[in-house]
Specification:
- The complex is a heterodimer of chains A (about 180) and B (about 325).
- By secondary structure, chain A is mostly helical.
- Chain A is built from 9 helices and no strands.
- Chain B folds into 3 domains: about 1-75, no CATH class; about 110-250, Jelly Rolls (Sandwich); about 255-330, Phage tail protein beta-alpha-beta fold.
- In chain B, a hairpin with a 2-residue loop joins β6 and β7.
- The interface between A and B is large, with 66 and 52 residues.
């Protein structure tokens, strides 16, 4: 947080500065892990989640109307959520959904070992998907791999959005459990 | 699928992941999610594992992605095995379709978790219009389906003003105890497995659901306005008393009222409102009982007065308040 404090000094000159920095540092200590998890869920990328979180803290530090904010934690998550939406929008505009995501955990070219693990992982994921009812795996693949939102999947599959969510939830829990099983023989 | 059903935390984590994905999920949903992650460290861990899996799927190279989309992302044609039976069977088909939709509808349960922080009461309006005043440091889960409204009070206290609906019973579960509304307002307080129910309006049915069916008819009690039922998990006994509406809902106005309750129960409830946790160091103090009022905005003065009421000492160690036997430790 040293870096964050330094940034705040540039932007703020009030007497309560150190108090405010302390508040933000406390927020960071207590909720950073949850914030990163929240952002990774929205962005599907750990590195993007970290970048956006950094940005969100910066905005918290340079917050002007501290007294108007009832709960700093809620405010932090709201700012972070909005920044995540902006980022998703930019991805769409640039049409590089695939490119941005594959920066996260680069696979393939680096080394033969890396490549072998990736192939094995893909086989595991494929096996997990094949065990699911067709609609469950379809909803999941359209959402998580093709990156489509629940509404558009609901239209394609002629289901309610609620059912699409239900399928995606089941697929996630199932694949996670199966991959865990494969990783701990 | 069996495997994922075996791990409710993982399933809950997947459910939260899907809910948080929606860009319009904010405010209340995020607060609820944070409360859930705060309940048990395994919750956030499971959520992170779901995240990791989803990111893994999302970061596959484009050839693999296309392969998976081709294999699983295609539109599934609706199964129409009954079609060869042709028009004569269409009536049956409509019936089957109707039955299926009804089944999905009946089985669909909407689950929400509500949580409050220490010293913070919360007012909640449930989707059916029922008003809930949730006491401090309390957690409840609502399971709403078309035919049932089930609430689980996991810990703490809640006051319910129920919108009655004959076709959709409203049932509050608290450990071994189940409270069924018959047009009512009532308070449920859970301290571990000890439960008290105070009815301020109308009538409820209180059952001990841990009792074997048919074992005795004493398992279900009708409780009306002004009555108080206490359930003691050690003896599995329910005892009746009386309590005014003002006493039962006093906690919403900084007043905790106790009638002949063990000191341990009083302290556990006090701790839901106290910024400084209070501990009972000597177990024989648990046997003391307390009747009276505690103001949650003046907990310190109540603690200060405690040695005048009971043979005990009140000490502050760091951020904790310790209640112990009157004699200094060296005498024992």
């Amino acid at each position: 947080m040293g870096k964050l404090s330094a940034l705040a000094f540039e932007g703020m000159t009030t007497v309560t500065l150190s108090e405010h920095v302390e508040e933000i540092e406390k927020l960071f200590r207590e909720h950073n892990r949850a914030l990163i998890a929240f952002l990774q869920c929205r962005l599907n990328s750990h590195s993007d989640a970290q970048e956006v979180a950094q940005d969100a803290y910066l905005r918290m530090l340079t917050l002007e109307n501290r007294e108007d904010v009832e709960s700093l934690r809620s405010y932090l998550f709201r700012i972070a959520g909005n920044l995540a939406i902006d980022r998703l929008r930019k991805r769409k505009v640039r049409g590089d959904f695939v490119a941005v995501q594959s920066q996260d955990e680069p696979m393939g070219e680096e080394s033969p070992v890396h490549h072998a693990i990736a192939v094995e992982q893909v086989a595991g994921l494929r096996k997990a998907l094949s065990e699911l009812p067709p609609k469950t795996s379809q909803a999941f693949v359209l959402h998580v791999i093709e990156g489509r939102d629940f509404g558009s999947i609901a239209q394609t599959m002629n289901l309610s959005e609620r059912m699409v969510r239900y399928h995606v939830t089941n697929a996630l829990a199932h694949c996670r459990a199966l991959v865990d099983e494969q990783e701990t023989p | 699928m069996a495997k994922s059903k075996q791990d409710p935390i993982l399933h809950a984590a997947a459910d939260w992941w899907v809910r948080l994905r929606a860009p319009d999920a904010e405010g209340e949903t995020i607060e609820q999610w944070l409360a859930w992650t705060g309940e048990d460290q395994r919750h956030l861990e499971a959520f992170e594992r779901v995240n990791q899996l989803a990111s893994q799927f999302g970061s596959l190279d484009s050839v693999t992605r296309q392969g998976l989309i081709k294999a699983f992302g295609r539109t599934v044609m609706p199964q129409r095995r009954w079609m060869p039976l042709a028009a004569a069977a269409s009536f049956v088909a409509v019936m089957l379709g109707g039955a299926y939709i009804t089944w999905v509808w009946f089985n669909h349960v909407n689950i929400e978790v509500y949580h409050s922080a220490i010293a913070q009461n919360r007012d909640i309006t449930l989707p059916d219009g029922t008003q809930v005043a949730l006491g401090a440091a309390s957690t409840m889960t609502t399971h709403f389906s078309r035919g049932q409204r089930q609430i689980d009070l996991t810990s703490g206290e809640a006051f319910f003003t129920v919108v009655h609906d004959n076709s959709r019973p409203f049932v509050v579960g608290a450990g071994d105890i189940s409270v069924r509304d018959i047009g009512t307002a009532f308070d449920v307080r859970r301290t571990g497995d000890r439960v008290t129910i105070a009815v301020t309006q109308g009538r409820v049915q209180v059952s001990n659901i841990s009792e074997k069916p048919g074992a005795s008819q004493g398992g279900t009690l009708g409780v009306t306005a002004g009555q108080l039922v206490s359930y003691d998990p050690n003896t599995s006994a329910m005892s009746m008393g009386s309590m005014t509406a003002e006493q039962a809902t006093g906690w919403q106005d900084h007043r905790l009222e106790f009638v002949d309750e063990p000191l341990s129960v009083v302290i556990a409830n006090l701790n839901r409102y106290s910024p400084q946790p209070v501990h009972i160091a000597d177990t024989d103090l648990d046997k003391l009982t307390y009747t009276g009022l505690i103001r949650t905005d003046a907990i310190d003065s109540w603690l200060d007065a405690l040695p005048k009421l009971y043979p005990l000492r009140v000490d502050t160690h760091g951020n904790q308040v310790i209640l112990s036997d009157e004699q200094p430790a060296t005498h024992r």
